[in-house]
Design a protein that fits this description.
90 residues, alpha+beta, elongated
Length: 90
């Protein structure tokens, strides 16, 4: 049953995030999240607060590419740009 495999993959992703000490280098399966919009919003807020910027100063650029470990997946790298420079990650 395909839905069971999908559910197991979602749980595995959540377990990986829970065990991680830093999400900066984690691969994210946005389609496997229960609320991907909330994840993107939270990462933008984290970058803004960490750098003492307002959310209005941030521009989000998404790069999509194939990851080395899975042919059927894509890698997305978020970059935050502000008047102070260009920063990778969140």
């Amino acid at each position: 049953m395909a839905w069971i495999h999908d559910f197991v993959e979602r749980v595995n992703q959540l377990a990986k995030f829970a065990a991680s000490t830093s999400l900066k280098k984690e691969t994210v399966w946005l389609g496997g999240m229960f609320s991907p919009e909330a994840f993107i919003t939270a990462t933008r807020q984290l970058v803004a607060q960490s750098n003492q910027w307002s959310l209005e100063e941030l521009n989000m650029r998404v790069e999509v590419g194939v990851t080395e470990d899975r042919v059927d997946s894509f890698k997305i790298q978020a970059r935050a740009a502000s008047e102070f420079g260009d920063h990778t990650g969140f």
